[in-house]
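User: For a benchmark we're assembling, each entry needs the component sequences followed by a predicted structure for the full assembly. Here are entry 17's components. Please fill in the structure.
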Amino acid sequence: MRLLEFDYFEAENLEDAVAHLKKYNGSCQIIAGGTDLLTALKQRLYTPACLVSLDNIPSLKNIKEENGAIFIGAMCTLEDIINSELVAKKLPALKQAAWEVGSPLLRSLATIGGNICLNTRCRFYNQSSFWRSSREKCFKAGGSICHVTNKQESCVATFSADMPPVLIAYGASVRLIGPKGTRLLPLRQFYTDNGRFPNEILTGSGEILTEIEIPTPSSQTNSTYCKFRLRNSIDFPLLGIAVLLILDKGKFCKDARIIITGAGSAPIEAVEAREKLLQQELEPQLIDAAAQIAASEIHPMRSSFVSPRYKREIAGVVLAEALEKAGGIRE
Amino acid sequence: MKKKIRLIVNGEEKVLTIDVQQTLLEVLREDLGLTGTKKGCNQGECGACTVLLEGKPVSSCSLLAVKADGKAVTTIEGLAKGGQLHPIQQAFNEKGAIQCGFCSPGMILVTKSLLEQNPNPTTAEIKEAIAGNICRCTGYVQIIEAIRSLVP
Amino acid sequence: MTDYNFIGKRIPRVDGLAKATGKATYTVDVKLPGMLYGKILRSPYPHARLLKIDTTAAQQLPGVRAVITGEDVRQVRYAFVDTPRYPADEQPLAVDKVRYIGDEVAAVAAESEAIAEKALSLIKVEYEILPPVFHPEEAMQEGAPVIHDEQFEGTSFWEEWGVTEQKKAVKQNSAVNNLSGHTLISFGDIEQAFRESDYCREDRFELKATAHCQMEPHAAVASYDPLAGKLHVWLSTMGIFLKRYFLSRALNMPASKIRVHHTFVGGAFGGKIDLFPYEFCAAYLSMKTGRPVKIELDREEVFMTTRQRHPIIVKIKTGVKKDGTILAQDIKVIADNGGYRGSGPVVIFLCHGFSFPVYNVPNYRYEGFSIYTNNGIRGPQRGHGAPQIRFAIDSQLDLIARDLGLDLLEIMRKNVRKKGDVLPNGDQLNSCGLTECLLGAAEAINWQKKRKQFRTMENAGRYRRGVGISLCSMFSGAMYYPFASAAVVKLHDDGSATLFTGAQDIGQGSYTTLSQILAEELGIGIEDVHVVAGDTELCPIDLGSFLSCTALVTGNAVKKAAADAKRQLLESAAELLGVEDLTRLKAQQKTIFLEDNPEKTLSFSQAIQASVLKRNGNPIIGHGSYKGYPRAERYPSLAKGKGLFTGAYGFAAQAAEVEVDTFTGKVKLLKVVTFHDCGYPLNKTIVEGQIHGCTSMGAGQALSEEVYLEKGQLFNPSFLSYRLPISLDTPESIEGIVATIEPSGPFGAKEVGEGCVAGILGAIANAVHDAVGVRIYSLPITPEKVLRALGRI
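Assistant: Structure for entry 17:
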């Protein structure tokens, strides 16, 4: 399957890029690394008239720390993240998550911005145009039905990106630039929990994600990312859980964040599990209790190859592992 | 839409006018006749199309050729110099790491990049490095052995 | 072991450097001047009647050179199986109905791939949707939708070759709906034997369809020369003569008017034997346009529309004595062959044929059904029936061992066949190392110690370990078109030789092993052997690289051709040296010498030159040939299993150690052991490579590989979602080679590279049971199935 024709515009600055997006009125997309986009284009999931490249804007490739925050340019590749000493030192879970994305051959192309903007996925949607022609068009593809639920006007495609749960756990915000100017948005608010249009950009805001801003974590911060997948490379997460713990004396849980990917149409925060941990000493029984609570906080759909029941079971196991790792109880 | 790009392919400058929707894989195979780079899946999931872009292994089917403009690309054809095989090619052949050969160009290029970055990789690191390259023939055993044989 | 110069040595592949440098040309790399690109329009529906196809708009699209539909090729029928009993049921493009998602409806040739794709979108097809059926047991029922209702006749190549013993069309068993093939074989008295058994057990096992995953996608290039009336094709194939035969029948052209050219093959594993519609269409479109045409399938098309391994249901009842001696076995196999017959009748025969050489079962009944459904077509895949049946039989044997408190190893040891055994069909086991393989594998996996150790409390935590073992066997060639392999060895005046062989190196290393045989037999170096292969015009007939025949059948042909050349060479030398008794002459390292006077030597060059000059230009060309199975007249009856099957069986014992994560259900394969009786290893590196490939494929199919189907639709037509093993899944691997020296094999060699895909499945399933105490009856053993069996979800 070859790519269809499109125009290609290499923006020299962000204003140009925004103007170009506007000019094409919805039929224009940003290409970052392109690893995910090219497959989608080959499958004819989108047929843009134009792609806008940000390759010529060097400022989007910086990683720096300033005034208590770490700034990562949206065009940094996952390999840049893996190789950054700053990230390794201050945001170890982010390095880990980057290391587990896709395969080595994609990590040198794929960008953090692209991963944050990754569309939701579904076994009925991420297929070729021929494949999809066997069935009625699904809601995400512009039809009216969801093949997972058989309901009208609904989409339960799964959010499957690895970087966002970690970034949300770190309290990251994203900088967006659009026709109405620039705004800084907490990353969790970037996501809509709408399977069809899962984030602000995909809802058609005409914006571009330029930078991620992460408050430098305190020295009491312990963080990790545990990814569960059926194959340890060339695979999306079946479930990924980012855990961030603020531990006093290495054990007392002052604060916690648990963010789950692969379990819904957006990254999910396990709020009740967090409550369970707060102001408690982290020990095995508490971890098991929190893990069980988290499993009941997600409502996965059969948009992948495993049953929701299995996913819920795994959520508890993976969270327990993540808490043990973040709490220094296991390697 | 056409665009003129400049690639440094195996050390040689190539100036080409291409369609912007062409992938690097298509340009290498069709415009430059470098068919050593293979198309296995065309969606970044098998590694048969691996080339080195500025020394780093990438899936060339998942990269628009226009994005490689001005960059150095190494393909399998660029490894043997002056009729002299690269030691990795030699090791792959001696250790039985090549069967049908369709994944071999990609595997060999990934190995080159690995050993340049880490001349002394552990077996686990070797497995990680080739984790994006699928081989159906060898079960990876002799490929891993071939790479290990290059570690001092 | 005999001390050979090349046989048994770790000789690097003769085609390795071409492959390592990217110089090897595969079919996908072939590009001819003026070449058009073809694409195929496929049915999106699993079962539908074709009402109308309108190609007008596509024909008018600039750049389109030809559009064809079923109307153009109405009369063309072909299939992997084409006999009076099972007439060919495939057509290159659908005529009346489509029978699975992906069935071919129309084909286009255009100036570019993009134009061809655009043209497809302009073809309008009207379908009448018919009720489909997807499960073979439902399809067998009365009242199920009938998938094939057309009447036609079949002719086997046997009849074309004058063997007419087979009776005329046999009426199909009409009690079973959608039946595409039936096999019934029995010997002894099972009812009586079950009554005499101390213990009987009945189980049902199920295996899902799996994909070959050749890294090179299927492709064909065809170029028709109208002046010569000759069709040139480049195909990614396992057997050039079989393909040519299929093509000549489908195109109604004499075989000699078709030339299959050599290309390297990027993996096959059984999935590149059949004639495929894209190959026919490339040829037909080239003949129609007078231009070369290339059709290359997308990875999705490869998954959906080439071939898959048969999903199979196996029901077994086994009766044993207290000590584990097997008295009787009643086996019922149901294979789903999809919308067309594919190799359905063959796989249900081979489930028997590839398995019954393992245990001596005196009372036996085997019944196989292959059934049409509206799923994709199933065909041969490495082991072709062996993995399915071996998994079932050895899983059940492990259950019996557990029920009776016996050691599985002991039961196996008690029941395995031995050298000298004659199988119920008459095949003789002139070499059989099953017992040695079994004991070797058990020792290498540390069977006794680990079985005990894993029963202790230490193995009761989250991660639990277990070991398992299973056995397998495989043919070494059989009687199939063109029934024999031949070879020609041409000597050059510098003393080197060119081997002409029709065999295809599909990655298994046959060019190398055949070169070794030639070099050893003739007395030259490996570097002195030049291989010309895979070209129907240049090379003599060959069975092709399937049914594991290359080492034994083609190997023997090459050995004979080399011996023939050597005899001529020695005759020439004898004249020069004034020797009458040829046995006094030896040839080594391109030198001929008198055994009793080694000082007296002659170079090969001198002898060859002398032959040309003194024997009226005789350049020395050796010929050799070997029948697929010299004792057999014809192929055995698929329906009754009568007749001889193969000249030699390869055997293997395989063991596995696994670690099961009882929280997630993930099974990690820690170690695999294969002890393989391959007769004699022609090249140890290559034999080990074949074992690794087999075990990796088998392990994938045991643990993660499944063509995931819902309502005939394939949900994972990509390497992302079809999870075959990657480097990180590679276990520790131990290989043992048991050299039994097969008397009929070249230098004692027989099958390698196919059988040992089969034992690993049962070994893993038994190891999982050993680890966690539950049996998974269906493959693959997914994490979810494990958790369900453990009662965690």
